[in-house]
Amino acid sequence: MIPFTKAHACGNDFMIVAQDAAGDLDRAELTRRLCQRNTGVGADGIEFFSWTGPNSGRVHLHNANGSVAEISGNGTRCVAAWMAEALGSRAGDKLDIVTDAGLRVCRIDRIQTRDEFTAEVTTGMGVPGFQPHTVKLSDGAEVAGVEVVTGNPHFVILVDNPAFTVAGKSWQTMGAEICTHRDFPHQTNVEFVRVASEREIEIRIFERGVGPTSSSGTGTSAAATAALALYGCQTPLTVVAPGGPQTVAWNGPGEELFLTGPATLIARGEAW
Description:
CATH topology of the largest domain: Diaminopimelate Epimerase, Chain A, domain 1
Number of domains: 2
Radius of gyration: 18 Å
Strand content: over 45%
Shape: globular
CATH class of the largest domain: Alpha Beta
CATH superfamily of the largest domain: Diaminopimelate Epimerase, Chain A, domain 1
Number of strands: 17
CATH architecture of the largest domain: Roll
Number of helices: 5
Order of helices and strands: EEHHEEEHEEEEEEHEEEHEEE
């Protein structure tokens, strides 16, 4: 049996499994099986964790389809909440988590333990890179957007309608096509951004290896990068996804971006 903890960050849910507990099982196959919503535990991915010090750990992330992802901002925050509970952390404590995209330092801002364990966490997401890019679709239509790197790849598209449609297509259809577009040989996450005000944007997310999802930490960071750099928005910026809001603080190119949001531990169990 494999012990696990399940957590979510704005509805983006992950299982946390100790590397040792998974033994020599194939991580991709195990992830696909356990992340199935109807026949498994159900999750957007599994964070395989190992302690590296008294306040530090190492994670390897597999998406629900078994593919390896460099990082998940929300998944990293879920791991930080799990570590905080295990360590008895308090507001102001910092936890170091090494991902396949590098070290992420998570500061515990607030802990709430009534009914469930929830940690409000600010994560240093690194220095984002970005550049405008236009994708030519199979039907000949061209879609302008912004390539953003927040430890993993993103393509951000500005929309002007509450349905988030682009070129007459739903954001889900457009996201699926762009995710696997030849311009992105390793595939890409796709975010659709509607500017509500200079301090708030709304987003929809098509996540590589998952599909449409309620939230994404790196996606929130990527959308905010484009909005702050190119769409006239101001920091700190509230980013509202279907799963809820997160806050991004970023002072511009060359500076580290900081992401703040909640993570809640929701279940523990054992799986075959």
